[in-house]
Amino acid sequence: MKKQFSHDFHYQILFGFATVERKWRIPLVASSLVSVILFLVATLTLRPSSSSGSSSFLAFRQTLEQRPLFAEDMTVEQQQRSVQDEKSPVQQPAPLPRLAYMISGSKGDYEQMRRTLQALYHPRNVYILHLDLDAQPRERLELARYVRSDPVFIEVGNVLVIAKSNLVTYRGPTMVSTTLHGAAILLKSRKDWDWFINLSAADYPLITQDDLLHVLSYLPRELNFMEHTSAIGWKEYYRAKPIIIDPGLYVGKKSDIFYISQRRSLPTTFRLFQGSAWTVMSRSFIQYCIMGWDNLPRTLLMYYTNFVSSPEGYFHTVICNSEQYRNTTVNHDLHYIAWHTPPRQHPLSLTLTHFRNMTQSGAAFARKFRKDDPVLDVIDKQLLGRQPGKFTPGGWCVGTSPDEDRCSVIGDTAILRPGPGAKRFEGLIVSQLVPATFRANQCVLPEDRRVLLRQQSHRSPEVGSKQTSRLFS
Ligand SMILES: *[C@@H]1O[C@H](CO)[C@@H](O)[C@H](O)[C@H]1NC(C)=O
Ligand SMILES: *[C@@H]1O[C@H](CO)[C@@H](O)[C@H](O)[C@H]1NC(C)=O
Ligand SMILES: *[C@@H]1O[C@H](CO)[C@@H](O)[C@H](O)[C@H]1NC(C)=O
């Protein structure tokens, strides 16, 4: 019954999207968009007993956030938001978010990074670029020159380049520290972004920023998109027990991690989680990790220094062991990634044969792509409407002269023109936020899963799925 409902609903929502041009703070006319909010409210309520749909978005926010008792627990955002919440009635259009992107690359990645940046660019967002120490000085210079000379970047000033590059060891803790480094600079340089998105030069968007910002505007800013599991299986032996050293921490030349002959036991003061190294994290969670007003992120950072493939576990373990943040996880990385069967260390390079699956997935990003693979041109043409060497057009591009780039004239950045990509992405988001999926997949421990299975086996599937959401809310 639930399925039927969401399907019909969905259909209705999709229709409203096609020609929406929205402006921040202008009241909404399209009732279908309001339906999205109501739908999310209904699916997001923490306590199923009150999920009649009448409970408000604000109530959700408050329960999710739980006003802190101690002053040092309250972030600046929470203080500001608690003032805003009282002012803004639910019916107003959702304020637009801002995204903070970190795009990383290594030797030979400059051109690919430039293309990814152009495809992802929107004046509302902020971008930080990191070419690691393995890249040629020439490439780093070229990158800096490009960012310094593009008239749009000059005017908006939202593209930063990390000058003091880090040496990054794949699978090593230097990867995590580089990500934290980029996030720290973003926190310091801009006060107004909502989500941090970590990408590499070999990633590419499948929807426009207008699509992404539009759909995200309806979501609570606290959500963290992080694919994770506690079922670490064989990795317990190959990842959690070995002790590694990352030479990138103390020598200036790139080399792989090395193993110590001794092994360690599994931790008992926290539980291990792992998952995709590609995440979309809330500003609040990033602050928590970097400013460390609780000692957990720091302790875990030290623990993960000697862990194989720490980027696939650090943030996941922090968030799932944090009482304050575990309820904010959405178990999806918003990426389309294809693996070999059986999976190998690196994912498949995507080509035209994946185009259909990629699009149908509804994902916001895909990886990984070879430089100038023909499928990128198809994505540009069919999904992004992007011309070679130009920005992905959006509501902010208001140039009218036929022989110049429309995006060379910057209009109101709060005007979005979401297209079919917003529908696809919304489909993915809705599928992740229906109660049975959302709550039932948050930081579930193996023992919780067993309880869940036992309970389900005593009930009909319909009741069972309801029970799932109850158990974890
Ligand atoms: C961040 O992005 C890079 C891409 O350069 C990736 O390899 C890394 O594992 C990501 N995640 C973390 C947690 O650092
Ligand atoms: C596309 O998805 C279908 C169904 O999940 C799968 O069977 C097929 O192998 C996928 N194709 C490619 C090229 O990955
Ligand atoms: C998170 O959810 C659990 C139950 O799933 C609840 O007991 C706890 O109070 C929630 N935590 C916060 C900070 O909202």
UniProtKB/TrEMBL annotation:
Domain of life: Eukaryota
Entry keyword set: Glycoprotein, Glycosyltransferase, Membrane, Transferase, Transmembrane, Transmembrane helix
Record's protein name: Uncharacterized protein
Subcellular location per the Swiss-Prot or TrEMBL entry: Membrane
Chain ranges passing through the membrane: 26-46
One matching Pfam family: Branch
Entry membrane topology: Single-pass type II membrane protein
